[in-house]
């Protein structure tokens, strides 16, 4: 699998949004309609599956079958029955779209190597386990998902409005000042270390943006860090 720079991945996500805009309508405000992109623009089949039954020894959120044009999503992420998982669902779906756009040609080159389940049905080409997020193909799909769901232009516009016209990045110290006296929770428990407190403070601060884009607070926090809008310290300027 070739190395892909973040800028290449960002361009591919932007290209997909342009294709959707040309065929259907331009996405000018959040949230990005990833379901429509999947089913209308890419014409892929979306299925909710009991991933724990299919893969009992792995924590699988999503999978993709390239030849069949099918994306499988863990059924517990279905936002119709679990609306509190909407952000996770959107990111998992966009992650699988990343595999479709970035990696499909490389998997389709070797059709004879595809494996089958015991009942003869095809195994997915890519299985996305939560423990494998640092593998190159998984990192690339994560980066694609972030770029698709939170495009730079929409983020910058939303950031300016959220910050009441202040387009500058915000420092972690300023966030802590704004949240003085608040209890900070990290992954369901009270934050204890400085790192956990910083992460919890940033995710609490960016919650309105996460809700606006219909992504998780974690996904929004990472995207804002990547775009250098959440920083440890602002760069010095002459003015």
Rg result? 19 Å
β content, as a range? 5-15%
Number of domains: 2
Dominant shape? globular
Biggest sheet strand order reads 1-3-2-4
Largest sheet: 4 strands, mixed
What does this structure look like?
The chain has 239 residues and is α/β, with parallel strands linked by helices. It has eleven helices and eight strands. Helix content is 47%, strand content 12%. The strands form three sheets. Strands 1-3-2-4 form a four-stranded mixed beta sheet. Strands 5-8 form a two-stranded parallel ribbon. A hairpin with a 2-residue loop joins strand 6 (185-186) and strand 7. Helix 1 packs across helix 6 (136-149) and helix 9 crosses helix 11.
What is the gist of this entry?
Helix content is 47%, strand content 12%. It is α/β, with parallel strands linked by helices and 239 residues long.
């Amino acid at each position: 699998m070739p190395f892909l720079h973040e800028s290449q991945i960002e361009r591919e996500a932007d290209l997909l949004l342009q294709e959707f805009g040309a065929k259907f309508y331009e996405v000018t405000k959040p949230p990005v309609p990833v379901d429509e992109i999947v089913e209308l623009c890419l014409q892929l089949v979306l299925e909710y599956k009991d991933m724990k039954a299919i893969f009992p020894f792995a924590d699988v959120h999503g999978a993709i079958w390239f030849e069949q044009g099918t994306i499988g999503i863990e059924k517990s992420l279905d936002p119709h029955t679990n609306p509190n998982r909407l952000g996770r669902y959107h990111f998992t779906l966009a992650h699988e779209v990343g595999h479709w756009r970035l990696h499909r040609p490389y998997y389709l080159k070797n059709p004879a190597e595809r494996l089958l389940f015991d009942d003869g049905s095809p195994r997915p080409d890519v299985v996305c386990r939560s423990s494998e997020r640092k593998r190159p193909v998984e990192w690339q799909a994560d980066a694609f998902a972030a770029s698709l769901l939170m495009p730079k232009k929409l983020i910058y516009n939303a950031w300016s409005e959220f910050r009441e016209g202040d387009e500058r990045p915000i420092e972690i110290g300023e966030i802590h000042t704004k949240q003085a006296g608040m209890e900070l929770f990290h992954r369901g428990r009270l934050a204890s270390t400085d790192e956990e407190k910083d992460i919890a403070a940033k995710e609490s601060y960016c919650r309105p943006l996460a809700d606006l884009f219909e992504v998780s607070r974690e996904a929004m926090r990472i995207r804002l860090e990547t775009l250098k809008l959440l920083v440890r310290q602002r760069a010095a300027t002459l003015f």
